[in-house]
Design brief:
It contains 11 helices and 9 strands. By secondary structure, the protein is of the alpha/beta class. The protein has a 4-stranded parallel sheet with strand order 1-2-3-4. A 3-stranded antiparallel sheet has the order 7-8-9. Helix 2 links the parallel strand 1 and strand 2. Helix 1 runs parallel beside helix 2, helix 2 packs parallel to helix 3 and helix 5 packs antiparallel against helix 8.
Length: 305
């Protein structure tokens, strides 16, 4: 459940943004009072997330984040972003707010966003997102793929009978061809919107799933942003694509390096790709064998040095 707030436009002036934030805070106090006085129905307790506002002004965002954090809610939301402000300002505000919001509570970035927005948000500590983009853009013929954006109304797909995305995340990707999907859009068949929406939702779920794996593996790499922007979409995730055989190195706490060859299916970088990441794993008393066998169940580990 979300607290009642005013979503300030990204171009609002300082005084308007300040008054709006204060109004949101007064509403939150009333909201929390009523929420805490209300008994849960059917034996299920709900969670109420307050919302940080403050437009693009760091001091207001800081005030709002401190006020929201003081309420001790089950989770906290960041609102009023991706509403007309420059993208770099959005990222700056996320950083300001997430320095203050509790790290042990979910942090929810509302209404965001593109694949690159989501990866940038994750890198800055965001845990949850919502956005109409996968389905709204899908209904208008735009597909998000690992190789970039595809506009399925374009003539280039008219005679392309290859799968929508050969290694896509959904059954629709190999069940239908690009030419067929283009035909459906031009024929204004509702099935076109359904297929595109299913594809985009599956892609977004795949994207955040891969990001989670890489967070756990300490390899959410610095080159991500540039790779995505070159292609206009998610070219960076090519570093996450499956590989059959690769080596993984790690450190013991005394600094002695051990190398492994991982035999079997897996994803890209593996575990402990950087020396620092491997060292941190060792310092946390987690062995390479434990990490590798956890992520690559059923695979064999062969010690090579």
């Amino acid at each position: 459940m979300m607290a009642f707030d005013e979503c300030t436009p990204g171009t609002a002036d300082y005084e308007y943004a300040k008054k709006s934030m204060q109004l949101t805070h007064r509403w939150l106090d009333r909201c929390l009072k009523r929420f805490n006085e209300t008994e849960p129905k059917y034996g299920y307790k709900q969670s109420l997330f307050p919302i940080v506002q403050g437009c693009v002004y760091p001091d207001l965002r800081k005030q709002a984040a401190e006020f929201i954090a003081s309420k001790g809610a089950d989770g906290n939301a960041i609102g009023g972003l991706a509403v007309g402000e420059p993208t770099e300002k959005m990222y700056e505000m996320i950083e300001v707010v997430n320095e203050i919001l509790p790290k042990d509570k979910p942090r929810y970035l509302m209404g965001v966003g593109t694949p690159i927005n989501i990866l940038e948000g994750i890198e800055r500590g965001v845990d949850m997102f919502d956005c109409v983009m996968p389905t709204r853009n899908g209904r208008n013929g735009m597909l998000f793929t690992k190789d970039g954006i595809m506009n399925m109304r374009n003539k280039k797909w008219e005679d392309d009978y290859s799968p929508i995305e050969a290694d896509g995340a959904s059954y629709v990707d190999t069940m239908y061809s690009r030419a067929y999907l283009r035909h459906l859009f031009h024929a204004q068949e509702l099935l076109a919107m359904q297929i595109a929406s299913i594809h985009n939702l599956a892609f977004y779920l795949w994207l955040v799933g891969e990001a989670r794996k890489h967070i756990i593996r300490y390899v959410l790499c610095d080159g991500k942003t540039q790779a995505v922007r070159q292609d206009g979409s998610t070219a960076a995730v090519t570093s996450l694509l499956p590989s059959s055989f690769f080596q993984v190195s790690t450190f013991k706490t005394d600094g002695f390096m051990i190398g492994y060859t991982l035999i079997g299916g897996g994803y890209g970088h593996g575990i402990g790709m950087s020396q620092n990441g491997a060292k941190h794993m060792a310092e946390a008393s987690v062995s390479a064998e434990e990490i590798l066998t956890f992520f690559y169940k059923g695979c064999q580990l062969k010690r090579i040095s």
